[in-house]
Amino acid sequence: RDIPCKVLRGDNRPGQLTLDEYCQRPHAMVSFSGDLSGNIDLDLAKVGRTRRVVLGVPQFSGLRAMLAGTEMIATVPDYAACALVEGGALRAEEPPFPIEAAQLSMAWSGVHDNDPAERWLRSRISQYMSEPLNIPDPFAGASYHG
Questions:
Q1: How many Cβ atoms from other residues are within 10 Å of residue 88's Cβ?
Q2: What is the pLDDT of residues 123-146, one digit of tens each?
Q3: Is residue 142 assigned to a domain?
Q4: Containing structural domain, residue 120
Q5: Secondary element (H or E) of residue 18
Q6: Which of 28, 38, 41, 85 is the S-S candidate for 55 at Cβ 3.0 to 4.6 Å?
Q7: Which residues contact 95 (CB under 8 A, 6 or more apart)?
């Protein structure tokens, strides 16, 4: 399946981010290799814009504490956003510019192609991962008094 991105934020401002706000805010980024640029930067370049990544972390799990109550934002895959918004400290929204979706694929050793247990497991993973995600918005229906 394609993996769309969501923008995570922990502030309490109403409404979605504009492209200008997105580019002006400090960004956190999950980087397994330590790089502070990635595919999001390539998609931003297509619309003539850049962002300012101020923090790189090796795992998605660290983002919840780092973003909560701050102006910092992070653009993450939908499956990570779904887990990180639990608890209500963060919310996820659509990015304010087009992002090319990554593709999720599965690989395994050819030795296991016809193993019944492996085939069953792969079919379950495929079924689960093909279902659309429902990412709750903790601010839906809430009024903002600021």
A1: 12
A2: 888 888 777 666 555 444 443 333
A3: no
A4: 2-130
A5: none
A6: 28
A7: 5, 6, 7, 22, 75
